[in-house]
């Protein structure tokens, strides 16, 4: 083990996880590749947990950061901030939410925390609906609405949370139903749940569950939920921390796969917009956003430097149609992985949209989770020069693939070939 690893263990909490039996130190990156301190080069299919959205060391972003840092690094929201206003204008227009207001934070966790504050203040209720198998962040309130046991370190909660079916299509009590029947059953479950409780503030949902293993319901489920929510005056919060900015290929936002009854009342974002800089935020209708009747600021949210990075990154994303690239290259990668998975008994399912892909592993001949295999494949992929992630629920083991959206066809094929060899290592 390296000296740095020993130093890490001496001062960093035990619960801060590290990948790999021999953890690596990432020293630098370029494009879709990173290098460790020992000089090994890796194709990056996890992007700092879906955060390096366009490319490592993207010249347009690094230039914008440097130029802004040379002018002023920090001022806070107590002063007018041109980069913040400009990025807010663009995000408000792209959000699909009418009369939108934007509040910037430093992370997705803080964005979801803010959304919960808005919803509970607006509705004067501390009850929240969340999805089973969900993940919404690390703060006390975000943990309290997370429906994934592996990421819930406490049962204490500032909110009363009720969990709804629907985030996982191919497991659970409704898995055998058709898409239409699945949606109907989940709506019936929601209706029944609301019959057993008092006024609810909001439903918070990831259009594609991230930490939960890149699972998603049939298109239109949240539109069907919206009809029920609207009858009760309940707000819909779409957690777009992982699904936003075109990663799913088909849509710019994950909620657009469920758009029949309009946009969400509140949308949260983070990760990719900063391309590695610490940017998060909330978009909401003006009446919802402005319901707070106490003073509030953000010391670091909307920092001039991070806003400059976000503006440059968003401009690059749109001008180079990276959403379209995610759809095209992601589609090819998914099909390639499905062909590989068909020949590997441990692969239960390859799922996803665009460049947000999950490979679920099971013990061959069963439907049981296979976490040992996930760890083995993670290690083997690294040894082969590929960095990936993993996740899943209490009964699943999933490899998570989320490369930068500028991934090329050649790089997708290279990554698939490395992953194929790594997957075959669980059979030997």
Write a structural description.
With 428 residues, the chain is α/β, with parallel strands linked by helices. Helices cover 37% and strands 17% of the residues. The chain has helices spanning 3-11, 47-50, 59-71, 82-95, 108-123, 140-144, 179-194, 221-232, 286-289, 304-319, 322-341, 371-383, 409-424, and strands at residues 26-30, 33-36, 41-44, 100-105, 127-131, 160-164, 202-205, 235-239, 266-269, 280-285, 347-353, 356-361, 386-387, 389-391, 397-401. The strands form three sheets. It has a seven-stranded mixed sheet, sandwiched between helices. A four-stranded mixed sheet has the order 1-2-3-13. Strand 11 (347-353) and strand 12 form a beta hairpin. The longest helix has 20 residues, at 322-341. It is globular and about 60 Å long. The two termini are 27 Å apart. The mean pLDDT is 96.
**SSE pattern:** HEEEHHHEHEHEHEHEEEHHHEEHEEEH
Order of neighbouring strands in the sheet with most strands: 4-10-9-8-7-5-6
Q: Can you give the helix content as a percent range?
A: 25-40%
Major beta sheet summary: 7 strands, mixed
Ends: how far apart? 27 Å
Instruction: Extract low-pLDDT stretches.
Output: none
| Coarse morphology | globular
Q: Could you tell me the strand content as a percent range?
A: 15-25%
- Total strand count, please? 15
Using only C-alpha atoms, the radius of gyration works out to: 21 Å
Structural class: alpha/beta
Mean pLDDT: 96
